[in-house]
């Protein structure tokens, strides 16, 4: 899968900006309490969590991850992930219970844009 709104960055920049604004609003309504207003894991609840939330600014893992992985991670949250999910076993809730899919995609656009980073490109499988 792909972020359904990423292509708008080139095909319809105004609509893309609308999605960025929606992502920003959703982030500051829901994510800021743990990830912080500067996305550096400095939210008011951050240091009460173990591990602390992801820091999207310093040593950000974002360029190493695809947007679809981040969508899955936000959707499913941390508690109850299988052993293979480590080190992603965190206190983050399963946001699919609270947010619409479009809101999650918009937040992902906002987080990359805030950091002036690009997501990892989708890789094609090699066949012989």
Description of the structure:
39% of the residues lie in helices and 0% in strands. It is mostly helical and 128 residues long. It is globular.
The oligomeric status of these chains comes to single chain
Order of helices and strands: HHHHH
Distance between the termini: 23 Å
Shape descriptor: globular
- Global mean pLDDT: 89
Radius of gyration: 15 Å
Q: Identify low-pLDDT runs.
A: none
Structural class: mainly alpha
Strand content: under 5%
Largest sheet: none
* Tally of helical segments: 5
Would you report the number of β strands?
A: 0
Helix % is 25-40%
Highlighted features:
128 residues, 39% helix, mainly alpha
How are the SSEs ordered, and which strands pair?
Elements: H1 8-11, H2 13-30, H3 32-35, H4 67-76, H5 101-114
Helix pairs in contact: 2-5, 4-5
């Amino acid at each position: 899968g792909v972020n359904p709104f990423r292509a708008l960055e080139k095909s319809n920049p105004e609509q893309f900006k609308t999605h960025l604004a929606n992502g920003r609003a959703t982030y500051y309504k829901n994510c800021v309490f743990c990830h912080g207003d500067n996305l550096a894991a400095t939210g008011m609840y951050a240091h009460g969590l173990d591990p602390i939330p992801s820091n999207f600014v310093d040593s950000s893992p974002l360029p190493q991850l695809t947007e679809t992985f981040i969508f899955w991670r936000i959707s499913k949250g941390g508690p109850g992930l299988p052993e293979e999910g480590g080190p992603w076993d965190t206190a983050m809730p399963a946001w699919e219970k609270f947010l619409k899919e479009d809101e999650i995609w918009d937040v992902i656009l906002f987080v990359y844009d805030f950091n002036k980073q690009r997501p990892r490109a989708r890789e094609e499988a090699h066949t012989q």
